[in-house]
Amino acid sequence: MRGFIPSLFAVSALASPVSLTSRAAKGIYFLLAGDSTTAPNGGWGDAFLSTTVASGSSGHNYGHGGATTASFRSGGDWAKVTNDIGTYKSTYDVYVTIQFGHNDQKANSGVTVEQFKANLLKFAQETTSAGGAPILLTPLTRRNFASSTSNVTENLVEQRSATIDVATNNNIKWIDLNLVSMNYVNTIKKDAASKYNLAANDWTHLNTWGGVVFSRIVSDLLVEKYGNIFTPATKANSTLSALIKAGKPA
Ligand SMILES: *[C@@H]1O[C@H](CO)[C@@H](O)[C@H](O)[C@H]1NC(C)=O
Ligand SMILES: *[C@@H]1O[C@H](CO)[C@@H](O)[C@H](O)[C@H]1NC(C)=O
């Protein structure tokens, strides 16, 4: 994902500035900020980059297991994201997906809902000032089914609505991953949904195929809502998108 060498590009840009302005539309560099549900080995991020992003576009998955909106900053992950915006923005349009909530919501997280909102807004503002564009994602649903309803237990409600509030009040792009991922697993039901579990009883994290399916949901939402930006950077999988849209197990 990191084949591009900034220093070489800077030299050739100096030598022939015209080539910069006459380039075709830039590709997108996706920087993925989030917790374990985005991170490698359990999240949707790696599959997003490897199965939904078209050639000419690229990215890096900075998802971090256990991260809250506070620890993602204090632990240094956020600085890597903003640093990468600076590195890649001359070659690509840089978009930063920001998806948190699973850990922020825990009673001992030390992050209140108000702080969660302020932290999301600060990530978005700093993305913009670094030269990138933020996209807020409501948190991927957990897949714990309640026997009383045969649906998943909706336990990220506050984090979903907080994320939407921040986006709509501040004119930030956003997609409702929580709602769409929840509706999908509610429709395919528990047995089919269990096929995405990272381990038999892990109804939060995704195995490799789960990553492919839920990253396709992320990609489809981006294309549906902001197609002028994301369609050129997207490698479609119409078979998979159609299964998801029809509420059939993929
Ligand atoms: C289950 O979820 C689906 C889709 O999310 C919804 O339409 C349906 O009303 C829910 N059923 C119950 C019993 O809550
Ligand atoms: C595309 O979707 C089909 C059907 O779900 C699946 O078998 C295939 O692995 C997918 N390919 C990629 C690259 O995601």
UniProtKB/TrEMBL annotation:
<dbReference type="Pfam" id="PF13472">
    <property type="entry name" value="Lipase_GDSL_2"/>
</dbReference>
<feature type="signal peptide">
    <location>
        <begin position="1"/>
        <end position="15"/>
    </location>
</feature>
<keyword id="KW-0732">Signal</keyword>
<protein>
    <submittedName>
        <fullName>Esterase</fullName>
    </submittedName>
</protein>
<dbReference type="InterPro" id="IPR036514">
    <property type="entry name" value="SGNH_hydro_sf"/>
</dbReference>
<dbReference type="GO" id="GO:0016787">
    <property type="term" value="F:hydrolase activity"/>
</dbReference>
<dbReference type="InterPro" id="IPR013830">
    <property type="entry name" value="SGNH_hydro"/>
</dbReference>
<feature type="domain" description="SGNH hydrolase-type esterase">
    <location>
        <begin position="34"/>
        <end position="210"/>
    </location>
</feature>
<dbReference type="InterPro" id="IPR037459">
    <property type="entry name" value="RhgT-like"/>
</dbReference>
